[in-house]
Amino acid sequence: MSLLNFTEEHDLFRKTVKQFVEKEIRPNVEQWELAGKTPRHVWERAGELGFLGLTYPEEYGGMNADYLYTLILSEELARCDSPGVSLGLAVQTDMATPAIAHFGNEFLKRNYLEPAIRGKMICSIAVTEPGCGSDVAGIRTKAVKHGDSYLINGTKMFITNGTQADFLTLLARTSDAQGHGGFSLFVVPTNTPGFSVGRSLKKISHLSSDTAEIVLEDVRVSEEHRIGDEGKGFVYQMKQFQFERLAGAFQMLGAMKRCYELTKTYIQQRETFGQALASYQVTKHKMAQMLAEIMSVEALAQYCVSRVQAGGDFTRDTSILKLIAAQTQMRVTNECCQLHGGYGLMAEYAVARYYRDSKLSEIGGGSNEVMKEIIAKMEGFR
After folding, report:
1. CA dist 13 to 4, 68, 80, 88, 157, Å?
2. What pTM, to 2 d.p., does this model score?
3. From CA 43, how far away is CA 51, in angstroms rounded?
4. Over the stretch 132-156, which tens digit does the pLDDT of each residue have?
5. Which residues are catalytic?
6. Cβ neighbourhood burial of 178 (10 Å; 0-12, 13-18, 19+)
7. Which of 129, 131, 250, 342 is the least crowded, having the fewest Cβ atoms under 10 Å away?
8. 309, 67 in Cβ contact below 8 A?
9. What whole-number distance in Å separates Cα of residue 340 and Cα of residue 263?
C-alpha cells in the first residue's frame, strides 16, 4: 500500500538499507544487547552508505533527498531486531542534527554537522533533566554569557548515545526571563573541560543503546557554538522535536511490520493440539486486526511525509501520528508476544525485544499525554 510515489530510486535505496540491516546489524544484535551499546563502527558504516544526512545539503556530505527517504530508512532500520540500534542512529539523523542544519552557522555545520553526516562523530540530544522530562520549559541547566563565550552548568538525564557522543545538542537557560524566550540551543563538545558522564544508566529496554546522565560543571563554549539567535533555543528545539517524533513513529511502523511478519511465520509453523496455530479462528482474527491497524498507521505516516514535503507547520499531524503509532505498537507487540506463548518471553526471540522495547514509544520524544495536550491545544481547546 502506498499513498506516495515511490520511484525506482526509492526502491533501490530500501534494498540498500535492507542489505545493511541483514548483513551488518542483525547478525550482531545479540552481542550488542549484552554489551549494552552499539559500537562506533555502525555509525561509520552508516555514514559511508550515506544514511546519516539524507535530507541535508550535499555540501556538508548529505544527499539533499526528499523526505520519503527518511521514512524508508527509519522503517527498515527498525527491522534490525534490536530497537536500541535503530534508536541510536535516529538520534544522529533526526534528533540532534536538524537544528544545526536549519539554524546553525557555518562553523557548526563544518565542524559538527558534516562529520556527523559522515559518521566520524557521534552526537546526542540533551534536553531532559532529572527534574523535568516532558516539561521542557522547566529545565534548569544554565548558560551564562562571559564575553564571547558561555559557561554552562547543569545535569542532563536519559541521554541516548551519552557515553559515546562526541558532541551534544543541548538546551540551556540563558536568562531568567519568563516564557520561552529565556532558552538557547548549543553544540557542546564532550571533550570540553568540565564535561563528564555522571553514570551509565541501566534500563529494562533498548539494551543495545547506551544511555547516560551527563554533568556539566563550568563547561565553557564559544559564542560560535550557539545555534542561531540567543533566546530562540526553545523555538528551535520545538521544531527539532517534530523531526524526532516523525522518525520515532516511522521506526514504530517498521518494528510493528517486522513483529507481525515474525509472528505470521511462527504461527504457521507452530502446532498446538494437532493443528497449526494459524488455523484457529481466534489467531486469524488477531492477525487480521493487527494488519488493519498497522496499515492505518502506515497511511497516516505517508500522509505526514506529504505534509513535510508540502512545507508549513505539521505539528498537529506529527503529534497525532506519534500518539497513534505508539498506542498501536503497544497493542501489536503485545499480541505478537502472546501468540508466541512462552517463547515470546525468551530474550533471544526478536518478538520479545520488540515487546519489551515498545514502552519507550509512549514516553520518549513526548509522552502520550503530551501529544494529546498538543493536539487538544491546536484544536482550540483551552
Report:
1. 16, 11, 16, 20, 35
2. 0.95
3. 9
4. 867 777 899 999 999 999 999 999 9
5. 244
6. exposed
7. 342
8. yes
9. 7
343, 349 contact by CB (below 8 A): yes
Dist CA 221 CA 239 (whole Å)? 24
Q: What is the pLDDT of residues 43-70, one digit of tens each?
A: 999 999 999 999 999 999 999 999 999 9
What distance in Å separates the CA atoms of residue 281 and residue 277, rounded to the nearest whole number? 9
Three-state secondary-structure class, residue 156? strand
Distance CA 6, CA 169 (A): 33
Q: Which three cell numbers stand for residue 20?
A: 545493511
Asked if residues 344 and 355 have their Cβ atoms less than 8 Å apart, the reply is: yes
Task: Give the type of residue at 86.
Answer: S
> Which amino acid is present at 259?
C
Q: What is the distance between the alpha carbons of residues 355 and 369, in angstroms, rounded to a whole number?
A: 21
What is the dihedral angle through the alpha carbons of 71, 75, 76, 79, rounded to the nearest 10 degrees?
170
Residue with cell 538499507: 17
Among candidate residues 51, 28, 71, 16, the one with its CA nearest the CA of residue 254 = 71
Orientation angle between helical segments 233-269 and 83-90, nearest 10 degrees: 160
3-class SS of residue 263 = helix
The helix/strand/coil state of 364 is coil
Burial category of 209 from C-beta neighbours within 10 Å (exposed 0-12, middle 13-18, buried 19 and up)? buried
At 61, the amino acid letter reads G
